[in-house]
UniProtKB/TrEMBL annotation:
Designated name of the protein: Origin of replication complex subunit 4
GO CC list: nuclear origin of replication recognition complex
Domain Origin recognition complex subunit 4 C-terminal per the UniProt entry, residue ranges: 216-400
A Pfam family per the record: ORC4_C
Source organism of this protein record: Prunus persica (Peach)
Entry-linked Gene3D superfamilies: P-loop containing nucleotide triphosphate hydrolases
Compartment(s) where it occurs, according to its Swiss-Prot or TrEMBL record: Nucleus
Role according to the record: Component of the origin recognition complex (ORC) that binds origins of replication. DNA-binding is ATP-dependent. The specific DNA sequences that define origins of replication have not been identified yet. ORC is required to assemble the pre-replication complex necessary to initiate DNA replication.
Family: Belongs to the ORC4 family.
Ranges of residues in domain ATPase AAA-type core: 55-201
Amino acid sequence: MARENPAEKALGLLRSRLCDPNFAFKALSHSDDSNYSKLKFLVSSSITEACNNSILLLGPRGSGKIAVLEVVLSDLLQEYPDMISVIRLSGLLHGSDNCAFKEIARQLCMEHQLVFSRMASFDDNSQFMIAMLRECGLAHKTIIFVLDEFDLFALGKQKLLYSLLDAMQSVTSQAVVIGVSCRLDADMLLDKRVRSRFSHRKLLFLPPANEDIQRLLEHILSLPTDSSFPPDYAVAFNAKLQNILADERFKEIISTYLNFDSTVKHLLRYLFRAVSYMDLESGMLSLENFKAALSNIQRHPKLECIKDCSILELYILVCMKRLEVKEQNSYNFNSVMKEYKSIHDSVKTSDYFARNVCLRAFEHLLQRELIGFTDNRGQNHSIEFSPVKLLVSFHELHQGLKSYGSCPAILQQLMDRQK
């Protein structure tokens, strides 16, 4: 049997790490001030002290709310295997109160090996949940309710939230409610009767700081120096990685990407692309891998469309951008033609086309959705007189002109003046 190439083994290990958010967030969980530590302390103290609690995990999508929660639950299930029962609901799947109570009853029956009745009514499932909270409390077992998309449960009459939080007021119940939402005002959506029973504990998940990013990169991309890899290879790989992380050009690449998207979830996707470019012959990561990944991930459909435009279509796009810079909020094909003629008269360019040719190019830009009508009424009127707008940003247009092989120099100069 052929011996496995250590470079292929390293690539497989890095990819598996990057596909496991729990592994990534363990690097950000060592600090006592981390959300992991705070959440674990809150839930574990509720378990050991037999008290009820409720908490909201708030932050933008991809900020790691669910990943951190899963790490906490995994740790607690190992520490207190017989004292925890986890019930998971999603506002996207169990939005109605009836559906939510039925799902709670189903999961509780599975957890405690009871027979679940599909024909049970709303009141039956509600009473069953309350009874199970009481029985688990007497048995010193904590039920942890995870409500993903918590804000969706706050719609309507909020019967689920009221029944759950009201049942937790009893001294015999023992439960923790953990709501997860990307809406920072999720608690303000609650009715007064529900809000009065909520503990108002909140954890805010923010994009990681620079030092956290550095620690995350080292944690994910470093190879273990145990017997799983040849010692010389692992040491050389980690030394090369440290050189890359210390390189100012690499820091600029990461900074550029984080300006584009600062969530950890998308950073892991970017790193997956980068390690996939690793040269298996050398078996080492390089700065070029991260450059290629950034170039690939920053590709925009509008830029690709601009590269395929004709010279005349580029002139029309630049003319429309000039009209916008002049704060001409409403313009049409005739206005664009006036601007086009003024450019020709000022620089005496040879790239001047007849009006009917320009109109066909204008229609082509409409079809490719690089420009569009300002309202739906424009589709029912003459194209020459219908108000239009540019559908590409200044940055996209400028980058498209720069990457256009035979772009006239005058267009580049006109765009540079608009900066």
